[in-house]
Amino acid sequence: MRDETAEQPAPLRSGLTTGSCATATSLAAARLLLAGATADAVEITLPKGKQVQMRLEFCRRVDDGAEAGTLKDAGDDPDVTHGALLYSRVRLRAEPGVDFKAGRGVGTVTRPGLVLGVGEPAINPVPRKMITDHLTRLATESGYHGGFEVTVNVENGEALALKTMNPRLGILGGLSILGTSGIVRPFSCAAYIASIHQGIDVAKTNGYLHIAACTGNASEDTMRRVYNLPEIALIEMGDFVGAVLKHLRKVPVDKLSICGGFGKISKLAAGHMDLHSRHSSIDLPQLAEWAAAIGADTALQQGIRDANTSQQALAMASAAGIALGDAVCLHALDFARSVVPAQVQVEVFAIDRQGGIVGHAGAFQ
Q1: What EC class does the entry list (predicted)?
Q2: How far apart, in whole angstroms, are the C-alpha atoms of residue 240 and residue 272?
Q3: Does the domain at residues 15-184 carry the CATH identifier 3.30.2110.10?
Q4: Alpha carbons 258 and 222: distance in angstroms, whole number
């Protein structure tokens, strides 16, 4: 468990990716094999040239190889792998190069559409390059002409992976070893956005050209009920609708259904790409204007402006026979269409807290 957050604001602390952890532990284990050197820390170079020192939990010989481990430090980012023990086991082999294997707690790709092929260990390209570069440099320094077999492990990785999108993406058996810069930036949510992109890629590659981008469990259940979509076609976008809309410029599908709570859809209708309360807020005066455009009288408009929540505003409009949910969805639809390619058919659903549809715009078939 993490320490409690300090009451006084302070700069957020960055961390290091699982790719950096795998690089450090692979290097330490290989160095033990080639130079007989054990250490309690190891220095690695990140992709942009920064050098960082990483503490080791152990570095030891095992069977016909060696292994080293470190605790993943995600800094102040709410990462499911924070504090997890990541360890790499290295074995020397005659063939030059590096052969990667998924150990305990590291997943294997089982569906096409990801950057890695089916059957490959879920160790992404940048971590693979980082590990390969460091081991190649070590081999040159040591006068070693063979290669390495690197098996990356994450303790309890199978259980941790269930808290990620890996099962939906077809990455089974554990976590992915990730990172493009080597650094985890607090609340950047880069890994989440990357998972959204991967989800769209996997769905399209596997022939699912109608996808539903959902803000949470209730909206996913609604899309299952309406369209009976399989899990692979349900994109868990959370608050990052912009990540979906922008990615469809590169990887267009035939149809996109967007589904979320009324409040979040109202933010999309106002042109927000990030629906989290840190970055956007519900505009009650705007809701009042939209209600006025479809017949709300002056009293109702004022009531909407004075409402405590968007749900209260919606309830007042519904009681007066004003289809505010549909109007909000129509504005959200217009904004979404302005971002995605013209060939993508788009529709928007707004739901209440029980998953009931309170608004819709677009082709509902």
Answers
A1: transferase
A2: 10
A3: yes
A4: 11
